Each structure stands twice: as structure tokens, then as C-alpha cells.
Fold Peroxiredoxin.
Amino acid sequence: MAQTNKLAAGSEFPTITLNALDGSSRTLGEPKEGATWQLVVIYRGRHCPMCTRYLNQLEGFKERLGEIGIDIVAASGDSSKQLEDHLTKLDVSFPLVYGLGEAQMKALGLYISVPRSEQETDHHFAEPGMFVINEQGTVQVVDISNNPFVRPDIETLVNGLTWIRNPDNHYSIRGTAPY
């Protein structure tokens, strides 16, 4: 049976710094704009219409996430040119970074796909992943998929994160039992 490594809930999020189109860089998992947690969204790339739709839907929840101290960054393995092209279909105000390499995809425990054709894209790409990183730089919530059809419902995700962030609930990181 083939197995891959995954980034365990409760572990330290790896240091991955990627570039944005404006020339700035972002270190994934390091919140900005007064937030203490960060939602890191890994998407397949410009070639994926479901990713475009999901990112555009996520924009509608940015304010609610900000109210509970969570900012958003989205990353893909696309090139700067591919991200630039993708922006024509995106209506988001959260940071988008590009150039996620295969070694970084593996460090995050993501599924990696080979393009079905040259028309799809010109590089291996990560399948969807989502990581919520807390103020200690620890993976609080993780979700990965091996295809674009399985992703968390954003309303359910935001409601759950609101509940987790409420200190009265004392909700610890789940899925940490060793095996």
C-alpha cells in the first residue's frame, strides 16, 4: 500500500515564503492586519474553474473571519504569469501568492497531480488543501483533498472556526492521537 506523509494537526506549520505579484512576499501561516490566526488556502491553479469559484466565494466570508481574528492567504504552484491571468477571473481582496514548489507541497502533505494535458497546465500542481494556523504557529485545523470536488463548505467552516475561537468552548486541537 502506498502512503504519503501528512502535516499533523497540532504540529508546527513549516516556514514557506512565496511571492505576490506586487513584489512583496508572504510567509504562509504568519497572520497580518491585526489577526492572530491565518487561514492558508492551497488551490490547484488558474486552470481550475472550481478553485476560481471557491476563492471568489471565500471573499464573501473575509469580513466574518476578520471579526474572529483570522486573515486569509491563498497559494498555488502557478507562475506569476499564470496568477496574473487568473486575476481576470478572481474578485478577491485577500493576498494571492504563487510558486509553491513540489518540495513545499510535500512538506504540507498535499496530494500532487500531474497535468492531464499541456492545455491544463505546464507543471505538477497541488490538489486543494486548507490549514488554519493559530497564534503559536501550530496547525489548528487541516483539510486536504486529492481532487477539486471535495472541499469544506465555507459557511460550515466559518461557523466552526467561530465556535473554536470562542474561549468559553475550550476546544482543543482535534486529531492528535498518535498511531
Summary: The chain is about 25% helix and 20% strand.
